[in-house]
Amino acid sequence: MNKVFLIGRLTRDPELRYTGSNIPVATFSLAVNRNFSNQQGEREADFINIVVWRKQAENVKNYLSQGSQVAVDGRIQTRSYDGNDGQKRYVTEVVAENVEFLGSKNSSNNSNNNASSSNNTEPTPYDFAETPETKGTDIDSNPFADFGASIEISDDELPF
Q: For the chain, which residues make up each domain, given as ranges?
């Protein structure tokens, strides 16, 4: 089984490219803290290269930046290529199946300094613009109220 779960912060902004067949692919590096301290009492981090494909690649590019915290699950992949000097090079990276956005680069500082982030006016990757469709939307209201007449469905009408 080849399965990897990581939580860390982006060390640089994601880079988005497209393959010859126009499939989006994003790459970024993730700093993941180790569970132990070194002899000086400092926690070290591993820097892991991540590759993500298709729509998630575009989302990563659009909503994440250096310092953003994410959870990644995927698989380890090792590939090789011939360098300009003719030597074979090996690259080990994580191919992400899912990238979950956990917080902006400032979220840990804000939570440490102020229990309530209501004073923070800087948008995070999760702040969505309020549109006329969503303005004042009450999540407890009936989302189908404006769709016209009701439809009655009974089990007798089902073909099976």
A: 4-113
pTM, to two decimals = 0.62
The C-alpha atoms of residue 28 and residue 65 are separated, in whole angstroms, by 9
* pLDDT tens readout for residues 11-35: 999 999 999 999 999 999 999 999 8
Q: What gap in Å lies between CA 29 and CA 129, rounded to an integer?
A: 28
42: β partners: none
90 vs 3, 78, 87, CA distance in Å?
A: 20, 7, 10
Asked if 34 contacts 87 with a C-beta cutoff of 8 angstroms, the reply is no
Six token digits for residue 81:
């290529």
Which numeric CATH code is attached to 4-113? 2.40.50.140
